[in-house]
């Protein structure tokens, strides 16, 4: 069965389903190596990030194994959990990680700008606390996930718009799902954590200065850099 071009709706899931069918049918046999990410993107007529999200989903399912410096190999002809590796009752867990990052760039930049205008003292303290928690987590050689979440949700709380707060909280529901977690295994490491802390510091300083334009730009820069880190070449993160 040849690969087919796919429609953009729920793109990574469509890609994963095509590859899953090929593995289930035996066209990609257990133990065989899949085409390179670049080649799959060309054959499917999609972007490499979309292929990457699909491969991450299949790895979470236990169907493939990514071997750094060697390639991507078929590990099983059937998923060991719900297709795409997520709970079917949680819509946010099915969102593609890189698609979520793209949405965050648009939404959270404006949230930061609003926070610079509207933040109260208690809001500023909550944002500072989030950043301090990130620093403590990194100092303990831990993924600074909870401090990161507290920082961004603190900014959303400060913006003064409940719908935007709910939206940011849903981004974090997705961020704490299995696809994001596996992506982080590859692309997060102590160096990236330190970079993120410096980017967060710039956002905080702009909000504290009541500089809405600066807060918007600092948040855009941070999230674009985060997206870039997740889009880098495959590798295993250094041992923590």
Describe this structure as you would to a colleague.
With 240 residues, this protein is mainly α. It has ten helices and two strands; from the N terminus they run αααββααααααα. Strands 1-2 form a two-stranded antiparallel ribbon. The chain is 64% helix and 3% strand.
In short, what is this structure?
This protein has ten helices and two strands, in the order αααββααααααα. It has helices spanning 11-25, 37-44, 48-60, 97-118, 121-139, 145-158, 162-175, 178-187, 190-208, 212-230, and strands spanning 64-67, 71-74.
Roughly how many Å is the radius of gyration? Answer: 19 Å
CATH superfamily of the largest domain: GntR ligand-binding domain-like
Oligomer: single chain
Order of helices and strands: HHHEEHHHHHHH
- Tally of DSSP helical segments: 10
Label this structure with key terms:
240 residues, mainly alpha, Arc Repressor Mutant, subunit A, 2 strands, 3% strand
What is the topology?
Elements: H1 11-25, H2 37-44, H3 48-60, E1 64-67, E2 71-74, H4 97-118, H5 121-139, H6 145-158, H7 162-175, H8 178-187, H9 190-208, H10 212-230
Antiparallel strand pairs: 1-2
